[in-house]
Amino acid sequence: MKTIKMLVLFLLLTPVLVFSQTDSISKSPRPKSCMVELNFNPFGEESVFSFDHMQTKYWLDNKTALRLGIEMDYNKNERDRDDYSSEDDEKKLCKEKSFLWGIRPGIEFHILENSKVSPYWGMELMYRKKSSSAEYKFLSGNDYGNYADERKVTLSNAWNATRTIQYVDDYGDVQSKVYNDLSERAFYSLGANVLLGADFYYVKNMYFGFELGLGYEMINYEKISVETDSGWTSEEETVDPAYDSRKFGFFCNNSIRLGIWF
Known about the structure:
Helix content is 8%, strand content 66%. Mean pLDDT is 81; it is low at 2-22. The chain has helices at residues 2-18, 24-27; strands spanning 34-40, 49-59, 64-79, 90-110, 117-141, 147-156, 159-168, 174-183, 187-203, 206-221, 224-229, 234-240, 243-252, 256-261. Strand 5 (117-141) and strand 6 (147-156) form a beta hairpin. An eight-stranded antiparallel beta barrel has the order 1-2-3-4-5-9-10-14. Strands 7-8 form a two-stranded antiparallel sheet. It has two helices and 14 strands, in the order ααββββββββββββββ. With 262 residues, it is mainly beta. The protein has one domain (2-261). The longest helix is centred in the N-terminal third of the chain and has 17 residues, at 2-18.
């Protein structure tokens, strides 16, 4: 599989080395051109193309382009009674959902005009928001569906991830310990990035590129609360209060930006 992916990457890079500079004008975008690009990772384990970071560009002139990045990611896990055997006396049912979206408006200033290799620098603003919720039901009873005990736990702005760690105690016996972690936490953030990259126009109406930058992001993590309903009583408590975080540093897009223009 890796051999095939390397061959695909080689075929994409070969035209850059063979077409002449006289073809640059015909292969480069012109004013009022539009571009659409996706992340391309030929060595990715899950997917070669990534649709969760799509980006569009609009060229104002031969050196300036407006850009808009769109980020989307949706996750859902569900486990119901049918996933268990009728012989299981204890069942843990769950419904977990999270949705992340973001926008990145910005501008690029290209250094070379009508060139097959087009380095640029730019700036972009960033807004991201993630929502998250989870519901868990713990059932215990007999094999006929008549459950003697039912407890429901509703988690706001996060998921509950259970980890089991095995270790050897002082007597040489293997022991297990269960940890409850919080994952998929809800948040919203604001940020700004300074960009440096390059586009390569290897065939007409197609290109690929690389990008890195320096960024700053302010993140506000939402309060996590838990509501427990035993069927007789219900109570709500705050597991972790809201808090802010700051990030500043260099970043690099590890994927190849592959796109078309028209």
